[in-house]
Amino acid sequence: MGTARQDFERFVRWLHEPDRNATDTALSFANLVLANFDAIAGTSRQRSNRSHLLARLARNGFAGIAPDLPTLREAVHQGEWPWIRLRRLTLGPFRGFREPQEFDLSRRVVLCYGPNGSGKSSLCEALEYVLCGSVAEAGQKRIIDREYLANIHARRFEAPSLTAADRDGREVEVRADENSFRFFFIEKNRIDNFSRIAAAPPARKGELIATLFGMDLFNEFASHFNESMDVALTLGTQAQIRLNARRQALATDEASIAGEAAKIAEIDQAATDYAGGFAEGLTYDGLKALVGSEETPGRLQELDAKLRAIPPALTGIARDGLTDLYANADGTADRTTEAAQVLHDRRQQVSFRDLFAAVQSLRNATPENCPACLTPIAETAQNPFERAEGGLQELAEIAALEADHQKLSRAQEEASKALRDELRKLEEYLESSGQQNCLIYGYLHTLARDPEGRDWWKSVYTATNDESGGTLLIDQILEAADRASTQDVQTREALAARDADLAEQRRLNDARVWIASHETKRTTVVQEATHARTRIAQWQEANAELIRQADEEAEANRRDAPIKEAYDNFYSLLDRFRDQLPGMLMADLNATTMELYNEFNHGDRDEDKLSDLQLPLTDEAAIEIAFRGNPQLRMNALAALSEGHIRCLGLAILLAKAHSVPVPLIIFDDAINAIDHDHRSGIRAALFESDRFRQTQIIVTCHSPEFIKDIQNHLPRDLRDDCQQYVLQHHIGNYQPRVNPDVGSTNYLVRARQAMDRFDPRDALSFARKALEMFTHKSWKWLESHRVGDIAVQIDGPGKEPQLRVLCDALRSKLTRLPNFVHPSKQPLIDSLNTILGIPEQTLVWTLLNKGTHEEPDRDDFDLHHVATVLEVLEAIDALELRPRR
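Predicted structure:
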């Protein structure tokens, strides 16, 4: 937690700034935390563990801690570094290095590359350990440094040694100062974490911004302070309150004893009044006897037993009703039979329905003649058409008779159903009253639910033998109805009596509840008086322990109250510091961050680049941006940018911070691999081709040989010799990475010149071709940055690149046609293009420059003069200022 401690020291310095208005108690509490930092850092807010530890520490020594600013390690002021460039690092045993390994870091640019697991991270962690005093990764994994940094094969670690050169060129030993050197490091993990900021909840966004600057351990440390430490302090007065309550209870007890008789008399009088109100002349004891109990049952228990018997249900059957139903069924049946007979007779009289209809249909055809014999109507005995019309009228009367018959049939069906339903009720009565053996029940039980036949009931009018002889069945049915009606009368009388019993039962139950409440009140008064007499007799002895606890509690209150006040003030200021942390980290970085971001994204359309950027100054604020395409519209950067652009933004913020310090050294720990390929050329140009970091030493580790090659080819010519390159490779069985510092330059011109020096013109032209491709594209981008880059070139087909000679010729033509474009590099570039284009196109040199060098047997020798000319031209172009917007 070394970095967290140094950040906490920064917080302590911040507390002592005049405009903080921190109380002396808050300052003293901060000094208490600083003095016990390691122990406190080992706790968390879980179950208030940290608060309990702070309470113990404060009780033991808070009163003696002064609020003065303690002696802290002085931070290096910006621009006043004890050294300006690293010289030599020796590490091992350390992490992945089993044996000591020395690295020459004296060049301005140090490039270390190799596959994963070859020692690059160990190299960066060695630098972090020497510069900062600890390794953040160890703290994040909660592993002590000596365990984390030990080589697992040597089972130990030696602290790396690092020397540097001061402004006078003297070699000095580097001493760790995490607070001063933290902004030297730009790590892949920080950029990865920052790229996830868009998906983080709002409460964590300030935390991730701090993580970007390597302050995540401090954030974690600060987050484990509880909002309040009251749970670990003695702040309440429970014992004192209980003691005062018991003292007050003495007066209450005395009053309870004195008022016992009056309360009993009042309660007894209420009982007498209640009994008299229940029944005139009734005493309270008489009321209790009526209510009774399980041991001595009374009227209430008697009613309970009586009301448990349920009277039979009402049948609703009566002789008159049943007689009416039979009469109605008989009447509807007779009327239906009569109507059916009339209808039948009328239908017998009219049998020429079809004939009458046919005659009427022929009336229009032969209105003057008989349709059968064509006799004139006047000569017929009866007009056939009039006779047909009369017959049809008679048929209409039959339709009315049919409708009347249907209506009577429905009435008969309804009367039949009503009678059957009533007989079903009579059957249920006989069954419920145990009369299943009587003749009537047998008749009713066998009767179908929906009897067939229109007069199914008429069998009751026939005499039937029963127990008393021959009797009409209808009479027996009506006698059964009389019995049901008699039972209904008895049931109604029983229900009326039951209502009276229920009312009496309810009154007695109410009285039972009142008596129970009354007895409880009376018992409570007696018990309270008895207990009061006991408490008064035993109070002093019973409260001896509570008196002691109350005295101790009062003393603890006097001790812990200042601790609570100090902690509350301290926590409020710590929370305020964390809220202002983004602003302190990002102050005045807006312009530089935006410039770097746009440089990283040089390939984007102009309207997609930023016109404004506002970094947050509080924990809750957002990163706001505006695009050149709509500069008036400002939006949340995390919502508007892709993940790749957010990563570029994170790197731009880190570099802007390093530039603002300004730092003498930037260490890229695999950071380039956190950025996608589309943006790496812009990052390379911003770091190695601009003047912004020209005086800054840069150490790069990555596993991309292509990126290292591009750096060396685009380094300004005057800085190219100030570059050291290391290739790290896996061990060969001895668990020691292979470190090769002599891999040679990957710069195309350097390699071309080296090929010529060993008399290998074909290899020289191979690298010359790559250099020429690079310079033509660089020149084209340079013209484009001055808004004169529209060039027409001919290509051989879709997806193909223009030949180099065609592109060189197009660049020369463009430059010669720009009289108003004035630049010191213009004419030298034209001269160089004239020179290289002066080599005949049909020579072997241009053949190979256009298509590349390949193995071809029996090839003619190269014209060494032409090859030398090509190299001289390329070296001349290399010396020109062709950076964009320069």
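Summary: The two ends are 47 Å apart (CA to CA).
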